[in-house]
Amino acid sequence: MPRSLPLRHAAVLLVTISVSTLDALDQATPVAWAVTDSSSVLEVQPEPSGGVRATGTLHLPAPPSVVHQVLTDYAKWPELFGVSMRLAHVERQGDRVVTDLYLSHPMLVGESRLLCENRELPGGGLVTSLLAGDFRRYRRTWRLVQDGNEGLTRAEFELLVEVDTWAPDWLMALELRRQLEKHFRILREQVGQRLQSH
Q: Mapped to the 3 state alphabet, what secondary structure does 30-70 carry?
């Protein structure tokens, strides 16, 4: 029995060190994380007022009309993201489409509801705005423009998101960057598949 005492002390010490490390990281938060390659640029940073903002540009090997079809194929939205997501309801209401999504992630408390309206932009693209649910703020914008010739698209992306979570904003920003990198890869693949099916 005496041997179990050092193990308890070691466990307490480990927890204390882990919490102290997180506190130290929270005090020295990186301002932004940026990723750049030949076909995309992505920057993610915590917002001073709370939440996280992400901006990016993708160059996609398909015309804007094809990219627009993929982005507005609401029934297949869960396939576009790396996070666990289920689509509970989609309803077209005049010039908008209402989507009712439920997301699961270790940084979220249980299954989080995201009820949004989606409006298509006249020149090509989509604006998704929060209506209700478990998020404090959510607004995502895709703007699609022709990139050089008719066969290419420059897609400009912006996201502002804030949600109830145990994680500090800097950690949410780091995880959001990882999820968006995956999202952009999936989007590129689905755009390519949609182009081949035309």
A: CCCEEEECCCEEEEEEECCCCCEEEEEEEEECCCHHHHHHH
| Residue range 86-121, pLDDT digits in tens | 999 999 999 999 999 999 988 887 899 999 999 999
Strand 96-104, strand 149-163: pairing = unpaired
Q: How many residues belong to the chain? A: 198
Q: Would you say the pTM of this structure is higher than 0.85?
A: no
Number of neighbouring beta carbons within 10 Å of residue 19? 10
Q: Which residues pair with 36 in a beta bridge?
A: 41
- How far is the C-alpha of 138 from the C-alpha of 129, rounded, in Å? 6
Strand ranges of the sheet holding 135-147, from the earlier edge strand across to the other edge: 33-36, 40-46, 52-60, 149-163, 135-147, 125-133, 111-120, 96-104, 84-93
User: Can you tell me the distance from the alpha carbon of 8 to that of 189, in angstroms, rounded to the nearest whole number?
Assistant: 50
Q: What residues have CB less than 8 Å from 139, skipping those under 6 apart?
A: 127, 128, 129, 130, 158, 159, 160, 161
Please state, in angstroms and rounded to a whole number, the distance separating the CA atoms of residues 126 and 141. 6
